[in-house]
Amino acid sequence: KEASKLAKGESSPMVACKQLLTYRQSKDEQAKEIAIDNLKEYLKESSYLDNATFCVIASTIFLEEGMYREALELVVSTGSGSSPKLEKLLQELCIYLRINRQDLALKALQKMK
Description:
Layout: H1 2-8, H2 12-25, H3 29-43, H4 46-49, H5 52-65, H6 68-75, H7 86-98, H8 102-112
Helix pairs in contact: 2-3, 2-5, 5-6, 5-7, 6-7, 7-8
């Protein structure tokens, strides 16, 4: 299923990359807002949230926009299931450093070990 989405340019990482590109190339705030709104629509589908790469790229967009809570929600694992992916932990660490929460950044670093 993911292969057919990839062929159409609709796979989770490709969708996130397109939104990041659109966001970064936007000349005005309205165009950036449209990119963020599109991203929020994709986030309503759980299949996208299952992809760590999608979550990290989407989190990057929110981080650049200063939407720290939304950025963190995409990368912080709250479940007791499988261990989180390293790229999500790194993004979590970067967000905590950006908001000057060294105590939480240290905890995120400890989770990487």
